[in-house]
Every structure is written in C-alpha cells, then in structure tokens.
Amino acid sequence: MKVPYFDLSRSHQKFAAEAQEAFDRILKSGAYILGPALKQLEAEFAAYIGTRYALGVGSGTDALTFALRAIDIKKGDEVIVPSFTFTATALAVLHAGATPVFADVEEPTFNLDPKSVTQALSPKTRAMIPVHLFGQCADMTTLMALAKKKKLKVVEDACQAHGALWNKVMAGAYGDAGCFSFYPTKNLGGIGDGGMVTTSDEKLLKHVTQYRNLGKGIDDPFVHDEIGWTSRLDSLQAAFLSIKLKFLDELNRERRAVADLYHKKLAGTPLGLPREAAGAYHVYHLYVVRVPDGKRNDLKEYLAVQGIPTMVHYATPVHAQPIMEKYKTRKVKLPVTDRLCGEVLTLPLFPGMTEPEVDAVAGAIRRFFGEKL
Ligand SMILES: Cc1ncc(COP(=O)(O)O)c(C=O)c1O
Asked: What's the rounded mean pLDDT across residues 12-36?
C-alpha cells in the first residue's frame, strides 16, 4: 500500500465550501492588504494563544526577525538558539544583525537544554530562542526562570507548535514574543506563506506593526521612522486561516490519535519513539523516530521502495550550515544534536491519516527489522 507523506486535502475538505465563500467575499471587497480579514484573524489568534496582540506577517522567518528587532537585538549581541532546529531560527538572528550561539538539546524531547544554555551564556548574551520542535514545547518553566535570572529576552519559535501547551499555557504566550509560521503543512497551515507574532507588549506591537509595513509611522504613514520591510499577511490567507483556526484543536487531536497508533504499533521495535514530556501537550507537527545502529538511511530507502516516503528533520545541525561558518568561534559541545542528526527519521503523519495507512508504515518497519509479517 502506498502512503502519502502528507495529504492536505483531507483537512481542507472539512471547510472547503466556507473557504470558497470567504474568497469570493474578499475578491469582491477589494480589501486585500491590511483589511478587516487580517484584523479579525489577529484578534482570534491572540485570544486563542492568550496574548493581548497578534500581528500577521509574511512568514515565520519574518516573524522571528521582526520580534528580534523589536526587542532591540542588534550587531554585537548574542542570541542563544538550539542547533537542532530548522535553519530559519538562526537565520533570523543573522537578519537582525546579531550572532547566533548554539546550544544543545535534551535527548528525550529534542528541545533546548537549559544546562547547555547556561554554558552558552556570555556577557554579550541578550536573548534566547526556545524552539518548540516537532509540536512539543521546550521546558518553558526552567528556561523562563533562567531568562529572568540572567535578564534575557525570550522569543519563542512556535512555528511548529500551534496549539501546543506547556503547563496549560499555549506555546507563544510565554516569551516576550511568540513566532508562528503558516507554511501549508504546519498545524495551522495556510495556502501559501504567512506568519504571526504574538505578544502582550505594546512596544513590540508598535515596532512589528511598522516593520511589516515599510516602517511607516503609526500616526502618520508618510513619515518613515523605522527601516521596515513589506511583509504583511494578506486578506485571502487571513480569511482562510480564520476558518481553519476553528478546526485547529480537532486537527491536532487527529494528529495525536495517529501518533498514539504509531506508539502502539511500533512498540517493541528497535526504534526510539517520541515521548510527551510531563506538563506538555504535544501536537505532533512531525512524528520523528530514532533509528539506532547507523541504519537510518537504509530504513529510509527500504520504506521508499515500499511506497512509503519519509523525511529527515534534520540531517545537518544548523551550526554546520555553510552560512554559519563565521559563527563557530565560541563553541559549546553539542553531542546530543550531533547524535540525533544521524538517527532521526520522520514518518508520514497528517490529520485524517487512516489506521490501515499507519499499519502499512508500521508493518514495513517491522519487516525491515526482520519480523516475518
Ligand atoms: C522551527 C521553524 N522555525 C522557523 C520556520 C520558518 O517559517 P517560514 O517557512 O514560514 O519562514 C519554520 C518553518 O518553516 C520552522 O519549522
């Protein structure tokens, strides 16, 4: 049986007619940029996350860049980021003109290790970016306490964690700012690129409002008193996301149900399975297993031949990316990151994935490990 890696049509069929109506309405309205549809989504998203404000921008990378700029991160500042993440987390630090300093992650959760953050601190450290990787929150209790003690700002990279909770508080509501991506396969994915900054801080609200809109003044749009970008979430995306937001909890529950099936059907295999930490509500943006004994690539190839596509998030740690060459000066050891990059494999998981599809994946994995099925 062939299994798709991802199938968006199964989520979107739930509300395709409603989306079509919204598109027709916006097409007629002519309000395509910074119109009422965006205002509505921003109010709904802020209420959902539990912050005072939310601001729609062009992408998750822009959300991170603007948030860093808004907390006044600049050249000469250091920002601590995990190396086991998508490159965009650290890319935003470069866009803000600052220096990324890489810290290691905790083995069971793949998320930023507070002990490693402590090792990465220097007098130049101004902020950290905990990433809620694969849909599970980083240990925000310990990281926020550390940030408070060391007077660091916190920008959360919640690009993979719409609806994830840590001690019943939403990802994106802990730090000075939360940053989200609406890339189509994300838990709240749009029909193109998009992003959001969440915050309860009025200063951030003002700065991000200006950055996304060419730096135009709040009181007088003909006065440019910030160096801005053109990076606004457009009305069509916003209207689509408003509709999808109503289904986000249901879609996340479907992801969790698929993850539960995987947990059961892969139990007892040599694979390391993802685990939900105490205090976390995992929304399984990705289902990432660990393949021991150097067999990751062999398993990946074996599954591909059986019609089961998989991916690797991430084969190269961010600190080893060519664009990071210059930032290797002050090194913290990253043994967990290095090990994970050689072991991780992402299995198909998406809302609406069926039990026979999960059976096909699990069965193929068991056969790879020598079971006669
Ligand atoms: C952890 C993480 N950070 C940042 C981003 C950047 O988001 P975007 O692709 O919308 O720029 C992504 C997603 O692509 C991501 O997964």
From this structure: 97
